[in-house]
Amino acid sequence: MLSSSVKARLLGSGMMAALALVAYGAPVRAEPGPAPYLDPRLSVEARVDDLLDRMSLDDKLGQMTQPERRHITPEEITRYRVGSVLSSGGSAPSPNTAEKWADMYDGLQRAALAGRLRVPIMYGVDAVHGHNTVVGATVFPHNIGLGASRDPALVREIGAATAEEMAGTGVDWNFAPCLCVARDDRWGRTYESFGEVPELPAMMTTAVQGLQGDELGGPASVLATAKHFVGDGGTEGGDDRGDTRIPEEQLRAVHLPPFRAAVKRGVGSVMISYSSWNGLKMHQNRYLINDVLKRELGFTGFVVSDYNGIDEIDGASGFTRHEVTAAINAGIDMVMVPTEWRRFIEYLRDAVRDGDVPMSRIDDANRRILTKKVELGLFESPMADRSYLRTVGGAAHRGLARRAVAESQVLLKNDHDVLPLDDDDKVFVAGGSADDIGMQSGGWTITWQGAPGPITPGTTILDGIRKVADPSAKVDYSRDGNGVDGSYDAAIAVVGEKPYAEFLGDRTDDLGLDPEDLRTIDRLRAADVPVIVVLVSGRPMDVAARLPGWNALVAAWLPGTEGAGVADVLYGDAEPTGRLPVTWMRDGAQQPINGGDGKEPLFPFGYGLTYSG
Ligand code: GLC
Fold this sequence. Notes:
TIM Barrel; Rossmann fold; 3 domains; single chain; 3-stranded parallel beta sheet; globular; binds alpha-D-glucopyranose; 6-stranded mixed beta sheet; alpha/beta
């Protein structure tokens, strides 16, 4: 029996004739065919209304629940009707191949479709610089390098390429782009930021268009996520998940604009930050979520918590019914509750029963979630589109990534135009980041933290140098620089940070280079040849005291799998056009240091040299 609201909407959706008879009780043979919510001819609103009318409370509680793949079985997906499943960082099928991802996704989706109402799941991953959890996928530069490119069109292309590689594996929800405004380089997530001013992440919300397409549901369209709402890059001391203690005017001026831009571009979901604002955890901030994000910015997608984010509301481990109530009433629509998802459902059911969470809130959350599922076309095409599997790590995407790497390079010093190198120069390469895909990719690569070593197919920076230099040119390598002598035209030290992610990358000590890297550079300098330092790092590092002894310095950031893009700039096949997306400290003690704060940096925000002067 159709409810009056559904009938009203169906009437408005061009099914006047048949339904007008029904509305006035005249006998009419019911149209054979799918239930309205399964009928793509109807409006999204009418379909969602019809589905909501058919759902039980438990159906609706399930939709608001997102377990991690290792902590739920296909049978439980069917039984609890969960709305989504995620892969946390590095959580992959075995073997970790694109095909196996597609098999895994389809298996879980079939379990969801076995439920009474056949509501498909969304599957979420952190494809933050390509489909980076899948071995063999293209890994693009991390956001800080893309911020240096100042190229929003490039970022949109990268989003589209990432969406294609995701679509081949079925994965239809990306916890990206991160739109944080990194104000303190000691923060372990600085490299996930496009820059220290709101204009850069706001400009790069083209990533949303790339991922989602001009509208959800097109070919290789995946749901994007603006994260982490709001102020995660402004915490005291760069403390990940810390407290952003600033007046509302500054919060609105610095950290809110990228989310305003993402909402205007139609971003489908927003993830809440672990951090606090003036002592209140964002995961319970009703004002900023309900009043600012949903009402003032007009966000009509759905809000997802961060991973166990509701556990941190009261500062104690685990979550309570009070925390569940606070998070849902604050406006969180789906909860990323990797392991204790049964208890979450139980607590939320109790809260609804006792009137602590109104049914209207549950319905609003479900309406937001289901609207995105209908718009994504998941009811019509729930399975992986394996026609895109051939794009995973394919030449076209790797070529795009190589261009992105070149555009992200920032030339900071170039004494006597030692760069660009000549193709036939005799070159000595050294450094721990020269021949290591894992080092040049950074965190969120295959595993959550990333790792040194040949973790996925790609071109190391040394490979790239050998590929770009003249085949007859002599290019020698030793990690520690042993073997260099005065016969070389130049020595290149490729050094930097070991991979890290989130709070494990927070630095409270200085931001200096590793002693091993410094020893390597000194060994090259002792050979009395021009020394070019290529810095592979997720943020500016404290190099001022050493810089006078270096003939050139290039900030390569975290380039990903296509290291040849660095060589393209070193040999002049690509002009260095990158400009600093963050202010470069003169001394680690200056942190936080940002443009306009009156401190004297080593290199200011926006700095970057070119070869053409
Ligand atoms: C992490 C991160 C968030 C990520 C989520 C799922 O803790 O804060 O950026 O999307 O968990 O992996």
